[in-house]
Amino acid sequence: MSTDWQPSFEATSAYLFVHFTGHEQAETDEQLYFALSRDGLHWHDLRAQGDPVLTWSEGEGGVRDPYIVRGPDGLFHIIATDLSVYHRGGWQEGRTTVNGSTGLVIWDSPDLAHWGRPRLVDVAQAIPKAGMAWAPEACWDADREQWIVFWATAAADSAEDPAAADLANELGDGINMYYATSADLITFSRPVKWIDRSNGIIDTTMLKAPDGWWYRASKDDQITLERTRNPYAVTHELVRTDDDQAWSYLSNLTDIFGQGRYSSRYLEGPELFLYNDADAAGPDGRAMPFGLICDQFLEGRGYLPFRSADLSSRQQQDWTLVNDMDFGRLTKRHGSIMPITESEYRILKRTLTR
C-alpha cells in the first residue's frame, strides 16, 4: 500500500460518512460507500449506487454497519459486520443471528484514500452458541492505551463449557453487547459480556466527551442514553446511580421529545459523533456540539438526525431535531461519521470520486 501521505496536525474542518446502502436487493448494497461534507449538514456521495469504494468478498460476501475511527497514531480503521443478507436470500426468519459469522471485517489506511487488504478477525467464537457479531465500534482508551471494541451477539442461556458460563445470556432476549480489548486491532482479548438486558440490546454507540464522561446510546425497547467514567463497567437492566464507575441511565429519545416514533420500533443504528468547532452551533446559535443519527429502518426513510447541547440532559430544550440535513443521493444505512481535515477532504475527493 504505497502513498505519499504524511501525518497532519491540522484541525478538523469537514466530515466523512462511511455507510452501506439499499435494501439487500443487489450484491453491491452491502458494501461500503463514502460521502463528504464541509458542514456536517450537506453531504456529497463520492460514488453512485452499485459502485462502492470498498468491497468484501470473503466470509459472508458482504459487509454492513461500518464504523470508521482515527487511531492515536494517525492511522484510520474501519470495522464492520461480516454479513450479506442478499447472498443469504433474505433474513431467513432470524437464522442470521444463529448461523452467521462471528468475525469482524477490518480495514486500515494511512490517509483514507488508500486501504490495505481487509482481514476477518473472530471475536465472538468463545460466546456460547454464537452465530453473529454485529454492528461493531471501536473507541481508543488513552488512559489504558488500548482499543475497546464492542458488538452484539446472540448467546445461549447456558454454556456447555463451564469456563464460558460468564458469557452466556442471563436475562430475557439472548442478544447482548460484548466487548474485547486490543492494542492493534489485530489481536483481541477474550470477550466480556458488557450489557445483558431483558429486552434485546443491539447497536450501541459510544464516545468520550470533552467533559471526561463516556456516553453511549443503544437500541433496546427505546433509544436509550447512559454515561459513566468507566466504560468497562458491565450492566444488566437500566439503572440511575450516583456511582460514576457504573453506567447510569440518563433518558431516551421518546421521553426527551415526547414522540413515540422515536422508539426502537421505528429507529435503529444510533450513531454518536462530535461536530467540528466551527459547526458546533445549533439552529438558534447555541452550542450543540453532539450529533446523534438514527436509521429509520421500519419505513426505509434513511437517517433521522438530532443535535444535543448536553448528552446528560433530559430536557427537550437541550436537544433538537435537525430538519435541514441533506444526506445526498444514496440511501444511507447504518454507518458512521468522522471529522476530517481539509487535506483529508481534498485527497478523498480527488482520489475516490468517479
Automatic annotation (TrEMBL):
Keywords: Hydrolase. The keyword Hydrolase applies. SUPFAM superfamilies: Arabinanase/levansucrase/invertase. GO terms for molecular function: hydrolase activity. InterPro entries: GH43_arabinanases, Glyco_hydro_beta-prop_sf. PANTHER family: ARABINAN ENDO-1,5-ALPHA-L-ARABINOSIDASE, ARABINAN ENDO-1,5-ALPHA-L-ARABINOSIDASE A-RELATED. This is Glycoside hydrolase family 43 protein.
